[in-house]
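Incident log, support desk, overnight shift.

02:14 A customer reports that sequence design results differ from what the structure should imply. Their input is reproduced verbatim below. On-call engineer (initials T.W.) acknowledged and began investigating.
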């Protein structure tokens, strides 16, 4: 599925919700003879449709997207077009996001505050069959592994959802309704989590959720 760049340009799809940035990056891709731009989209659902239609060699996507976020777009693309290589371009740097990128198996990650030359280098590396991750991702993942209170070590998927909604300011009753649990079950979850993490009050738990990047909108609840 990965072509020899001397013979066939890499078919590329771009998904970015900011129109100005999308236009700039699309023109950058189109001006590089190593790539064949086949289309761009402003939301994840349209991006997935492009990938299903064209089966590109490279998908470049933001993570914070309307309709379908970039994490789900990456998951679905790898399922439906397994030969597509995925490069993530984003401002999100929180532990949850970085862990999810690793779990999903994306092939590259570049922060939006990096220079254009880094983005172009990352595109070539990922499209060529290699991986490209900036030092920030490696450093933050190492910190996550070393953190005795990281959500990866302490929280099950269900507990992550509860903590995310606590961080968003939801009451126990609201959380119970959203997750189809009893209020008593939610209270038990919160008590066990706070005891495990040695928190004294709900504000500490909410701060923890925000610092870890856990938020209700990240989950399909």
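02:41 Re-run completed on a clean worker. Output:
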């Amino acid at each position: 599925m990965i072509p020899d760049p001397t013979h066939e340009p890499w078919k590329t799809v771009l998904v970015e919700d900011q129109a100005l940035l999308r236009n700039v990056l699309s023109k950058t891709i189109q001006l590089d003879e190593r790539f064949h731009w086949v289309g761009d989209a402003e939301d994840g659902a349209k991006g997935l449709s492009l990938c299903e239609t064209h089966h590109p060699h490279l998908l470049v996507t933001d993570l914070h997207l309307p309709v379908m976020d970039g994490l789900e777009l990456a998951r679905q693309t790898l399922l439906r077009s397994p030969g597509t290589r995925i490069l993530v371009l984003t401002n999100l740097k929180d532990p949850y996001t970085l862990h999810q990128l690793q779990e999903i198996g994306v092939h590259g990650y570049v922060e939006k505050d990096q220079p254009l030359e880094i983005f172009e280098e990352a595109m070539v590396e990922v499209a060529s069959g290699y991986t490209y991750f900036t030092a920030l991702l490696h450093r933050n993942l190492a910190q996550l592994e070393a953190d005795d209170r990281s959500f990866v070590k302490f929280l099950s998927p269900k507990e992550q959802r509860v903590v995310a909604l606590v961080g968003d300011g939801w009451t126990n009753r609201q959380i119970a309704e959203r997750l189809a649990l009893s209020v008593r079950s939610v209270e038990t979850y919160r008590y066990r989590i706070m005891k495990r993490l040695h928190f004294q009050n709900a504000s500490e738990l909410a701060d923890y959720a925000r610092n870890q990047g856990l938020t209700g909108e990240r989950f399909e609840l």
